[in-house]
Amino acid sequence: MQPLHVPYSKHIEKIHMPYHGLALVLLVTLVHPTSSCTQQEKGSLLQFLAGLSQDGGLAMAWRSNTDCCTWEGITCNQDRRVTGISLASRGFEGSISPFLGNLTSLLRINLSRNSLSGGLPLELVSSRSIVILDVSFNYLTGGLSELPTSTPARPLQVMKSLVALNASNNSFTGQIPTASCLSAPSFAVLELSYNQLSGSIPLGLSNCSKLTLLSAGHNELSGTLPDELFDATSLEHLSLPNNRLEGSLDGIIKLTNLVTLDLRGNGLNGNIPDSIGELKRLEELYLDHNNMSGELPSGLGNCTNLMTIDLKSNYFSGELKVNFSNLPNLTKIDLVYNNFTGTIPESIYSCSRLTALRLSENNFHGQLSEKIGNLKSLSFLSLVKNSLTNVTRTLQILGSSRSLTTLLIGFNFMHETMPDDDSIDGFENLQVLAMNDCSLSGKIPHWLSKLTNLRMLFLLNNQLTEPIPDWISSLGFLFSLDLSNNSLTGVIPSALMEMPMLKSDKTAPMVFELPVYNKIPTLPYFRPGAFPKVLNLGINNLTGVNPKEFGQLQALQSLNLSSNKLSGEIPQPLCTLTNLQVLDLSNNHLTGAIPAALNNLHFLSKFNIANNDLEGPIPTAGQLSTFLDSSFGGNPKLCGHMLVNHCRSAVADQISIISTNLCGSEVFFAIAFGVFFGVGVLYDQIVLARYFG
Ligand SMILES: *[C@@H]1O[C@H](CO)[C@@H](O)[C@H](O)[C@H]1NC(C)=O
Ligand SMILES: *[C@@H]1O[C@H](CO)[C@@H](O)[C@H](O)[C@H]1NC(C)=O
Ligand SMILES: *[C@@H]1O[C@H](CO)[C@@H](O)[C@H](O)[C@H]1NC(C)=O
Ligand SMILES: *[C@@H]1O[C@H](CO)[C@@H](O)[C@H](O)[C@H]1NC(C)=O
Ligand SMILES: *[C@@H]1O[C@H](CO)[C@@H](O)[C@H](O)[C@H]1NC(C)=O
Ligand SMILES: *[C@@H]1O[C@H](CO)[C@@H](O)[C@H](O)[C@H]1NC(C)=O
Ligand SMILES: *[C@@H]1O[C@H](CO)[C@@H](O)[C@H](O)[C@H]1NC(C)=O
Ligand SMILES: *[C@@H]1O[C@H](CO)[C@@H](O)[C@H](O)[C@H]1NC(C)=O
Ligand SMILES: *[C@@H]1O[C@H](CO)[C@@H](O)[C@H](O)[C@H]1NC(C)=O
Ligand SMILES: *[C@@H]1O[C@H](CO)[C@@H](O)[C@H](O)[C@H]1NC(C)=O
Ligand SMILES: *[C@@H]1O[C@H](CO)[C@@H](O)[C@H](O)[C@H]1NC(C)=O
Ligand SMILES: CC(=O)N[C@H]1CO[C@H](CO)[C@@H](O)[C@@H]1O
């Protein structure tokens, strides 16, 4: 988990500055030790220690000296009063002692990244001296909002110095506290993300005249964004992602200091007001995963400092009329899952720092402009599911984009022909290419053989014919190949058995400018976010295989040969592919018995041999016995407890004795039918792993 403060570096600078001063003071006092800390302050610290059930060796460290000002993690001022407690990441367990509230000169506490539980003591929150309180990344519970109001005796003195409170990544409940803004005139930073806070955004925020950062994402906040929120005009960073907030951005014009606006993952509606152009300092705009609609206002083109525009998964529509020419700092534009129409505006190609452009799942049409070549840093381009035309031109233009590592252009160019000539060149750095679901005719083109950095290739759901070319094995990094649902013919080439990445456990490093993930069915042994090693040749007209060589694909995790014209016995070497998690041989003409050695495939989670001509009993023990009848159906001569066709008990009893030599070694052939399950496309969905992981 990344620290949540990364984008807010300006604050960190501000907050850290006094530290150097303190350190200097400390140095001076060390040279001239006048006295030591008071017994009372020392006692309070020892009470803190006593509250810990696991102190991470702190007791040992503190035992060595009587002056608590010299203790590890403790800083004092000239008067030997404790001013700082800096004990982050110490492995503490237990609770935070209320005695810390007795340290009347305490300015900053950092207990971040421990395993502290219980509440945040009232005595601490009521402190008049504390400026910075960081208790983030613990297991603290209870309310934050009740605290100040439950001390009616001195409400205006409560937290009067507080500048920054970081209580993120705990289990705090209740509402966002705001009474603090009245009592603490300098209150500037409120970081509460990753808790269980609920209720609506408090109106009291309008009194937080110094508040620059409000971060309360990943809570359970609800209700409408109140106008009062837009009165906190000092706000530079407003970050409330992943709540259940509603309302519109109509009042946003008042927040002219905004640098970051992150309201993703809520239920906002309405459009982006044209007045957003007044937010001249805006750098990051995240409104994705809301229910917003309407056209993008041309005013957006006045936010000249914009670096990121993320509007994915909304109902925005109309043509992109924003003039991108005035947004030289844009590096990422993500508009996937909207309803934009028209052509891709030429002005977008003047954003020369663009590294990622995702326009997929909209209604853009027309041909790609050669001006896209101006985007020298473009690494990620996704145009999936639009109505773009002229695949030849598209590939000719993009080939010279040397930075391009990911190119996803599936679901376009319907019924065009796959170009296969020397006019397609370049793509030196391409790692992922998806040209799926275009109904392209032609064959697997030779220019692909020059894409030596390719890791994943998706050509499924086209109408490609002819055999799989032998040069495929020269793609030394390729570990995921999906050619399913074409009309490929010929035998499964032995070149496929020589694919380096499928033979060895080595993995090729991959970088995505935007988060993507594939629709591969969640399987228990796939690491989340990792891309499995896949060979999918299902639904073609393939007619043969050299079975001995299958054993070489030791790293393969998913193999789909379903719905081809393969026949013969299930080949013996398949039984040695112990990393397989998916094996689909369904809808073929396979004969003979089920090899008991398939039980060696301990990671197998999906298995399908339905609709073949297999015979004999299904093993009653081991991995294979865990699959349902749907994995075996359509084989009239098979018997087993999960099938209508039960085996005679004498036969069933002998299953465990059946030797492994039943793993056949014949060529196999098949007929075409629908896939039972498929290994999917790198489909261009979004995992917000970077933020929500
Ligand atoms: C808590 O928030 C403050 C203010 O934004 C920040 O300086 C600090 O680094 C954060 N703590 C952690 C552990 O990220
Ligand atoms: C310190 O704090 C504790 C708990 O909040 C309290 O009981 C005690 O009276 C305070 N004073 C001293 C001198 O310890
Ligand atoms: C507290 O300590 C952690 C870990 O050293 C650090 O990341 C964080 O920035 C600190 N918090 C503040 C407010 O300085
Ligand atoms: C802001 O503070 C004033 C008192 O200074 C109070 O009267 C007012 O109700 C507060 N506003 C909100 C929205 O809480
Ligand atoms: C989302 O907006 C559409 C109109 O764009 C509306 O019909 C729908 O009810 C809204 N859904 C929610 C959950 O607000
Ligand atoms: C954008 O800037 C132009 C030129 O400065 C100005 O005419 C226009 O009114 C501005 N639009 C908005 C919404 O700020
Ligand atoms: C763009 O970024 C640079 C720094 O990378 C900055 O100096 C400049 O002010 C930013 N804004 C514009 C409009 O160029
Ligand atoms: C976009 O802005 C640039 C620079 O301000 C200007 O030269 C160009 O004419 C504008 N384009 C459109 C389509 O308005
Ligand atoms: C997208 O826009 C078209 C018109 O351009 C409209 O017919 C269609 O209903 C819209 N789809 C959605 C999901 O809003
Ligand atoms: C497709 O682009 C090529 C240039 O690469 C051009 O010659 C051809 O006419 C275009 N086809 C159509 C139908 O526009
Ligand atoms: C396989 O070839 C036959 C004709 O030989 C054709 O009817 C069938 O559609 C082809 N199947 C696929 C998946 O291309
Ligand atoms: C979402 C998130 O960052 N959660 C983290 C909160 O902190 C605990 C440890 O205190 C981590 O285990 C969580 O992953």
In words, what does this structure look like?
With 693 residues, the protein is α/β, with parallel strands linked by helices. The chain folds into three domains: 19-187, Ribonuclease Inhibitor (Leucine-rich repeat, LRR (right-handed beta-alpha superhelix), Alpha-Beta Horseshoe); 200-354, Leucine-rich repeat, LRR (right-handed beta-alpha superhelix) (Alpha-Beta Horseshoe), CATH 3.80.10.10; 455-690, Leucine-rich repeat, LRR (right-handed beta-alpha superhelix) (Alpha-Beta Horseshoe), CATH 3.80.10. 11% of the residues lie in helices and 20% in strands. It contains ten helices and 42 strands. The model is unreliable at 1-33, 147-157, 518-523 and 650-693 (pLDDT under 50). Bound molecules: 2-acetamido-2-deoxy-beta-D-glucopyranose (12 copies). Residues 315, 317, 339, 341 line the site of one 2-acetamido-2-deoxy-beta-D-glucopyranose (NAG).
